[in-house]
Amino acid sequence: MADKILKKEDLAKLIASVTGKGGRFVAPTTAARQIVFKKVSKAEEIAPDYILARNSFKEFLFPQTEVIAEFTVCKDTVDMRGVEVEAPETVVFGARPCEAASLAGMRALFTWDFVDEFFTKRDDNTVVITVGCTKGDEACFCTSVNLSPESTEGADVYMRETEDGGYAVQALTDKGKKFVAAHAAVFSEGSAKARALFMPEKVPGVDLKKISERLKDKSHYDNPVWKKLAMKCIGCGACTFVCPTCRCFDITDEGTAFEGERRKNWDSCQYDSFTLHASGHNPREHQPQRWRNRFMCKFNFYPEKFNSKGCVGCGRCIRVCPVRLDITDVMQEFSK
Ligand code: SF4
Ligand code: SF4
Q1: What average pLDDT score do residues 120-142 get?
Q2: Which runs of consecutive H residues, i.e. helices, occur in 77-124?
Q3: Is the pLDDT of residue 1 over 70?
Q4: What 8-state DSSP symbol labels residue 188?
Q5: 267 C-alpha to ligand 1 centroid (Å)
Q6: Nearest C-alpha to atom 8 of ligand 2 is from which residue?
């Protein structure tokens, strides 16, 4: 049930209203022949007809790389200095309902045994506006992981495109309601006919409960499927970087031996160095083990540990994989 209408011509005013108050407005736009989430300043920059952006909006909460401290090695001690967290007021516009659902898992991880303020401060200052999907492709499978283009998990504001080019607006959270109130001048009262949503077909045979049960039994470690996947997988890590739920990172020190900065960088469980110990031992030395870990993380570790989805069915990993590996094939294999 829509609360308000955002007319087509008023999207530009919304962007101006957000940026005029010093905020950043992030939306899907075209760059290097792809649709990507980027900061925009004009409505014309927003891609008019997209399925979903190639990248996830997670990078605006959890950047690919960032400085988390600076250090100087002194004679008898190390001077370690914290840095200010950059957490600008941010509006993510045009996220799809599947990817917004990834936020629950992100929040669980980044507040689990340690509150990571680099994530939480940005999350606090971000309003997520999802827009229900009116188109999709064969890689979309949100309906197989109990989501749909109507899902509202993780969204502060949910919008539906209307047939006249505007949006029907529903503020969901307190943050979303405050956002709509703060920019009240650009929203209108009324109603408009919403465009039909694209509902992906369910992947035949997929049974999440069965997958979870089978992954609890370690006998699957010897399942030939892991070797079969790894025969093709080149370990590029692209699937993990585009995934809205993947949040692994590494900490590195950069600079000279005596002074520099400590950085937090995205890492990928698909890299052979991901679990390499300083001793030289690597508990996941081979690609089948790494593929198995990625799948277990999505369908066993996250649901078990955080009661949240490890996979939201966005299909990004399928679209980006250079050797066309498809996670839904593995879901089918473990649904038997
Ligand atoms: S595993 Fe693939 S389909 Fe699932 S959330 Fe990640 S990118 Fe999307
Ligand atoms: S994108 Fe494909 S090839 Fe690259 S690590 Fe992922 S599964 Fe392997």
Answers
A1: 98
A2: 97-100, 103-110, 117-124
A3: no
A4: B
A5: 16
A6: 233
